[in-house]
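Forum: Protein Structure Q&A
Topic: Joint prediction for protein chains with partners

I've read a bunch of threads here and the consensus seems to be that you should model interacting components together rather than docking separate models afterwards. I'd like to see that in practice. Below is the full input, 930 residues plus whatever partners are listed. Could one of the regulars post the assembled result?
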Amino acid sequence: MLRAENLVKTFERNEKHKKKTMFNAVDGISISVSPGEIVGVLGPNGAGKTTLLRMLGCLMSPSAGTVEVEADGKLLTSEQEIKRRIGYLSGNTKLYARLSTRELLATLGGVYGLSEEAIIARVERISTLLDMRSFLDNRIEKLSTGQTQRASISRCLIHDPEIYIFDEPTLGLDIISSAAIVNFMKGEKERGKAVLYSTHYLEEAEFLCDRVIMIDQGKIIAQGSVDALKEKTESASLREVFMKLMEPSGQRLEGGNES
Amino acid sequence: MNRKIIQLLYKKEMLDVLRDKKTVLMMLIVPLVLYPLIFVLGLTMMANISTSMSTQTYRIAVQEDTDEELLRLFQKKRKDEYSFKIVAVSEPFVSLKNEEIDAYLSREDNEYRIWYLSSVTNSQYASSYMNNVLREYKEQLVKKELAAAGLNVEQTLSPITVAYQDMASSEETAGNLLGTVLPFMLVVSLLMGTMYPAIDTTAGERERGTLETLLTLPIKNSELIFSKFLTVATIGIASAVLNILSMGFVGVYMYRMTGRVSGRTGDIALSKFAPALLIGVLCVLAFAVFISAVSMCVTAFAKTYKEANNYITPLMLVVMFASFIGFIPNVELTRNMALIPVANICLLIRDLLAFKYSAGIIAIVLVSNVAYGLFAVMFLSRIYNSEAILFGDGSTGVQIFERRTNMKPGGVPTTGDAWFVIAITALLMIYLGGSLELSYGFYGILGTQLCILSVPVLIALYTKKDLKKTFSLRPCGARYYPAALLMVMGAILLGIVLYVIVSFILPESTETADASLEVLKGHGLPAALFVVAVTPAVCEEFLFRGYMFSAMKQRYTPWVAILITSATFGVFHMSPARFFGTAFLGACNCYLVYKSESIIPGMLMHVFNNALSVLVMYRPDLVTKVLPVLAKDTLSPADTCFCLVVGGLLVFVAVLLCREGTNQLIREKKE
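Posted by a regular:
Agreed with the consensus. Here's the joint model:
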């Protein structure tokens, strides 16, 4: 179980002709994801989704607040321990183009502390699961977009983590590739894994998520199951919920910290 | 650090770098193709050109009344040598200018004059060959005169003969020749070899987007940096070895070739160089450690290839400049010199090839290189902040290069700005300050200090910084005044201990220690105090504890900021013997400025310290009465212990005085 309390991330805003100002990209968000649950993080560009996920994955240290993971009856708070339990994937986590997927997985497995035999067995399972046998030994730079995305997912799987954090995993993929990823997340949920993911595709989120969290300007503006949110806002779809909830905040600055 | 993780990451990095065709080509092509090509082709071409020059026929003109005998000499056929064709021209100077003839000979009584064009190669050669002919002609005339006077020609012309006999073995000659060139080429090839992988594994990794992937892994900064460092060092060593081998083969080939031509071959016993080569290999390894670490320190903070390239160019210039030292004759590798990076390796290799071995110095060079390198890597892994590099706000760039309209008012300088200001000030101090002090002596010091003050202030104004914050221009709490006094006295006493330790390790470095105060002679005490104590205290504090420290503090933890600022302060004083003492005093100043958030205690301490050294000169009687240890030339162990204990105690009390953050409390209440 992944849990975060009152996460805050402060950045310096650089605007032309203006004094440097501090602003909170994430402003006091508490969140938890339980095993067997898919939680969706929704929000417009610059809402703070990526920053939130980066803090949860311990890629970025929060300005305030805590991140912890409960696993095997233990409460883990150290960055290194938490990273061991998390599979993190985003559009920015690129792969080493000059290595093959097999070499990459072997290296990462070793870093996670797996034995050589365990790595071989694990690579075998993952390549069956993601149908990667045909390109396992090709250099990653030679792979197609869909194959690269599968290789990226296999990277998060090598240590069989309890928690997945996916930042817009289906962005820019064709229907077949994104369906594969959606199916993968569903499958992992059924295996009792906790999945936290952000997306702009609201239909996908509606189909997939047990719970959604909508954030805007660093704060949670609504959360709950899709049905509960629909009921609360008297909407027919998640898209409608989103549009209704986002309206009051009016015009927004594009950009923010989505790097 | 986990060894297994480092091993795995190292393996991955090596695989990644070695599969990059660009790197491999750069690594292989330069040593294996380019060197032999340049050397062999270049030398063959040069040889061909000089043969053609020496066998060519030159068109010359001579004045009409030239002696018949001389004309005959010019027209004489020489076998396999140059020859002349005398052409009749009406206007010799015009013809020469138009390059219709190569040279022209005029004569006025006994004075012959060769007219030529130094800008034209043929004309140069023609003039020098003409000179040969004239010399021959002169000899003939002399001989004729001597014979007419009834003298023995041979005995009169050469009553004695001189011959050289070289006592150096041919190995020593070759070593001496190699010793000037090889270190330079070695240092440069190692730098070139490490540059590319250093950029590729740091800025390249970030640019390719794999750094964020690495961050998802449970690895520590130190493991990340160390594995990258090992990769860079390995590639650096490999390319250096390839370079040396290639140079070696080319060298042997050339030697054989020239040997065959001159008829003497194989009289150099290569086995004599074995010990030099063995130690040389150790040198290469030690230097690889050093230069890899330094290149990484420079490139690790760049976000793009382009930025990394910009950072590494000055490093390259500095290293190349330092490695020129091997070309300077009579520079000895002393113990002091053995501590100076780059220069020490160059001089050691030069000495090794000249068969000069000193175990102590070899040890110092090797250990210091490895120590500097490891220290740099450790330092880098401490301050390397992957988050700032990945998602950072660019607080490292040099702001002054931006457009002024884009600069936001307020805030403190970036670290990039601070280094820029330090570099500019150092240059001004060396060139402008140096010449000011040469022409105006004592009062020139004021000019130097003005440079030190004006650069940071002007740049802070230009970049629209918050001057109060940048230079810590705030009043400080009352208790920082006694703290400053106690601290500076303690620091001075501890500084003496440091000086004793340094002079024990490096006896040669202490001789020039007090030469800087020589310039004071002949000036009154008030003037001396003003110029040497008060002015530097204000100006240097503005630069270091003000501009630089505020920039460093913004970016690093306070301790790291204090360390960087005071080490720079120490280096700035350009005296190896006083480095530690000065840096320590600087650190104490920094600490007080940091605690009090005001520059005033720093200035106070600085005034006190400098005034004391002035007083030692002007009123030694007074100083002896108050603190006898200060006026002594040599310190007994008891004196040293006294300094250590009392100094330590004073610093301790000063730190205690600063401890409870009452100053902060007061300010918070006010707000």
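The CA atoms of residues 207 and 226 of chain A lie 9 Å apart.
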